[in-house]
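ESCALATION

Customer reports they have been waiting on this structure for their group meeting. Please prioritize. Original submission:
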Amino acid sequence: MSDCLLGLLFSFSLLLAGVFGADDVTVSVMMGESVTLPIKPGEINERLQWKYKNSIIASFNVRNKDIPAVYPNERFTNRLNVDPQTGSLTVKNIGTEDTGEYQLEIKTSNTPDYKLFRTFSVTVNDQEITVSAMKGDNLSLPTDVKIKPDKVKWKINDTDLTDKGFDNIDVNLQTGQLYIRNIRPEQSGKYDVQINSRDLILHRIFRVNVNANEGMPVSKMEGETLTLSPDTKTQEDDVIKWMFEETLIAKMDRRIHPQPDPVLDKRFSGRLHMDSRGYLYISHIKTNESGIYDVNITNSNHIVQKRFRVTVTGSSSRSHQVMIGPGLFVLVIMSVIVLV
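Update from on-call: job pushed to the front of the queue and completed.
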């Protein structure tokens, strides 16, 4: 079969697959890492070139592997490498300034010009996500993945999760999200996840700190106003959730609107309010509203969980009306006096 016919068949197969200009891969990595923009073995057997923001940064002929790749862009001096077997591009010591679109273009024997084959949208993060939790919390570390990935790998303090033997940790294989039930202080540390699929490359690091304190004690008298503070600086992309005994009672998504949603629990109708800072107020607090109050604040840089153990006691004094005579009442205040 002639080279011309082979080129026609190759080009036709690409068009059938819809790959010219159709593939878009999302890449999210940490600053300082080496990231590889992959091509599967045998996927490309022609000339290729890599572009960054429409400037050529590498070119290579997969058919003639004896000729090394050319790297014409000084921006990436000594930081690029093209795999001679596949054409995959590796960027070493990647920085936030390297965020942007990387385009893979190919040229077949039947096409006079290079055509777009795949686009990699790369985001380089310079911060780990800090997570503050209380002993006994249920914690989730999100990946924001919407489609089931091909591969998910979690590490805790640089050791594979599977080697840790924790019986209170699960991974959602549909999203890669990690769930920790009843977290313990010894589970503090560095959590990193690597996710790979056809259209996603993700590496994210969480720095988890578990406070051994099981919750801040708060005491109130019945009828008073309860004020609970998340004690953290709010961010524009905060999602704030307040829970009472694991039931959602207040929520605010500052990405959408800087004001909280309406009261979510009818028990607190007309008495519960959350301000723009995330402070929770409950007026005329009742004894049956004693219990565990949790706040969760999540944004792009941190996750904060805080717990309050609220005790509401009955009033120390009661009012009684005592009849002295026909039609005559006197208000008597009954007080409890403790003698020491």
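Sent to customer with the following note: Residues 1-22, 317-340 have pLDDT under 50 and may be disordered.
Escalation resolved.
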